C-alpha cells in the first residue's frame, strides 16, 4: 500500500511570454518579393511579378541563423 503524501507541491514559475519573431528584411514580412520578367532573345525586362522570398521561404519571419 502506498503512503499518503503529506507535503504540497511548490508552484512552478510561469513560462515567459513567447517572443514574436522579427519580420524578414527582403520581403518585409509578406513572404513575396518582386521578380523581374524578361522576354525575347535580348532578355528585355517587361514587368514584374510576385515570387517566393528565398530568404524566409514564404513564411515572412526572419531565419534564426
Count the DSSP helices. Answer: 0
Rounded radius of gyration (Å): 26 Å
Low-confidence stretches: none
Largest sheet composition: 2 strands, antiparallel
Order of helices and strands: EE
Backbone structural class: mainly beta
Distance between the termini: 54 Å
How would you sum up the global shape? rod-shaped
Mean pLDDT: 86
Widest beta sheet: strand line-up: 1-2
Number of DSSP strand runs: 2
Helicity, as a percent range: under 10%
Which percent range describes the beta-strand content?
A: 25-35%
Concise description?
The protein is an all-beta fold and 65 residues long. The chain has strands at residues 32-39, 44-52.
Search tags:
65 residues
Explain this structure.
This protein is 0% helix and 26% strand. With 65 residues, the protein is an all-beta fold. A two-stranded antiparallel sheet has the order 1-2. The chain is rod-shaped.
SSE topology sketch:
Elements (H helix, E strand, L loop, with lengths): L31 E8 L4 E9 L13
Antiparallel strand pairs: 1-2
Amino acid at each position: 500500500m502506498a503512503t499518503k503524501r503529506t507535503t504540497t507541491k511548490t508552484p512552478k514559475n510561469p513560462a515567459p511570454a513567447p517572443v514574436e519573431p522579427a519580420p524578414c528584411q527582403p520581403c518585409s514580412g509578406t513572404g513575396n518579393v518582386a521578380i523581374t520578367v524578361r522576354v525575347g532573345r535580348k532578355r528585355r525586362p517587361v514587368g514584374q511579378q510576385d515570387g517566393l522570398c528565398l530568404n524566409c521561404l514564404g513564411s515572412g519571419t526572419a531565419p534564426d541563423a
